[in-house]
Design goal:
Elements (H helix, E strand, L loop, with lengths): L8 H8 L3 H8 L10 H13 L6 H8 L4 E6 L5 H16 L3 E6 L4 H13 L4 E4 L7 H6 L5 E4 L10 E4 L2 H14 L5 E4 L5 H16 L9 E3 L4 H15 L5 E4 L2 H13 L8 E5 L12 E5 L2 H16 L8 E4 L2 E3 L7
Parallel strand pairs: 1-2, 1-3, 3-4, 4-5, 5-11, 6-7, 6-8, 8-9, 9-10
Antiparallel strand pairs: 10-12
GO molecular function, one term: transcription cis-regulatory region binding
InterPro entries: Fruct_sucro_rep, HTH_LacI, LacI/GalR-like_sensor, Lambda_DNA-bd_dom_sf, Peripla_BP_I
Protein name: Transcriptional regulator
């Protein structure tokens, strides 16, 4: 198959009967400024449109020392929260004339290093990262080369710019309601215990129990990872151990709850009296007969704040508030008397 030929400025110049320099001036918007005749400008632009000419992004990069691209690194592409965040951020980039490049780490620190290096090699102007790493050392070094913002997750005491949703306060409020209704049994299904989302949501869980006057039992806390399959497996093992569904359950993420609901559907448990609650909301929960209370992050604002910080950093602005913790809200679908 014959390889298609990209239309160049030289091609446009030849078709218009002008020099390459003249065609370049017109196509770069400087023809009128440098007194190129109007009929010549119109002829060049007409031919460019007819030939579907597109300027070289590489030439633009050399002129401006920018690629006009941002890199986004997420653990999972199919995770509902990350999918919505990616969509919101891509819209913001498109409106600003930027291209968003998205890479997935599969919750693997080694894979994260690879995809970050690939994005840096493509000369992105800045990076927004939901990291699976436990130390910010590599990112501190990288931040000396280009702007970088952490989101959703952070490493202890990091000073890097970050945007996260508050988890401790709303989870405590939600779990307190569960614990007052079921003081004898409230389970927690979480992801990797060393990641900040798990630690923050577990702290909220413990605070909620304490506010309800319920002592947290070690066997109530179960960890896996944030994949739906992990939620399925943890819940299956818990039901097997108890011989029944638990009275009350809090899952630390939407993906974990997905696995729990799949198990419940397969084993005819959707009509049980279990009190389900979760961090992360999903619009489909409004359609379920099973009432699920959730903590809802303001994902559009998360994306907007990340975009605001990274673009300000790219423009060389000083940040008055480089670390932002955004409020989250409760979606209460189950009455406390249910």
């Amino acid at each position: 198959m014959k390889k298609s030929k990209r239309v160049t400025i030289s091609d446009i110049a030849a078709l218009a009967g002008v020099s390459k320099a003249t065609a370049s001036l017109v196509l770069n918007g400087r023809g009128k400024e440098l007194r190129v005749a109007q009929n010549t400008r119109e002829r060049v632009m007409t031919i460019a449109r007819e030939q579907h000419y597109q300027p070289s992004i590489h030439a633009r990069l050399l002129r401006e020392n920018r690629s006009h691209t941002l890199g986004l690194v997420v653990p999972e592409m199919i995770n509902y929260g990350f999918a919505v965040f990616s969509h919101e951020l891509e819209n913001l980039c498109r409106e600003a004339g930027l291209q968003l490049l998205i890479a997935c780490t599969d919750e693997n620190a080694g894979q994260e290093t690879v995809v970050v290096n690939n994005l840096v090699a493509r000369q992105v102007d800045g990076l927004i990262v939901a990291s699976s790493m436990l130390s910010d050392t590599d990112y501190v070094k990288l931040s000396e080369q280009l702007p970088l913002v952490l989101f959703d997750r952070y490493m202890n005491d990091t000073r890097l710019p970050l945007v996260v949703a508050d988890a401790v306060t709303p989870v405590a409020d939600l779990v307190e309601r569960q614990a007052r209704a079921h003081p004898n049994e409230v389970y927690f299904l979480g992801g990797q215990p060393r990641l900040s989302p798990t630690k923050d949501r577990l702290e909220g869980f413990r605070q909620g129990l304490a506010r309800a006057g319920v002592a947290c039992r070690p066997e109530w806390i179960i960890h896996g990872n944030y994949h739906p399959s992990s939620g399925y497996e943890m819940f299956a093992a818990l039901c097997a151990r108890l011989g029944r569904p638990p009275e009350a359950l809090f899952t630390a993420a939407c993906g974990l709850l997905e696995g729990v609901l799949r198990y419940m559907s397969q084993h005819q448990m959707l009509e049980s009296d279990i009190w389900l609650a979760s961090f992360d909301d999903h619009y489909l929960y409004d359609s379920l007969s099973l009432k699920i209370d959730t903590v809802a992050q303001d994902v559009p604002r998360l994306a907007q704040d990340c975009f605001d910080i990274i673009t300000r950093m790219i423009d060389g602005e000083e940040l008055a508030e480089p670390q932002r913790i955004l409020p989250a809200s409760l979606r209460l679908r189950r009455k406390s008397t249910d």
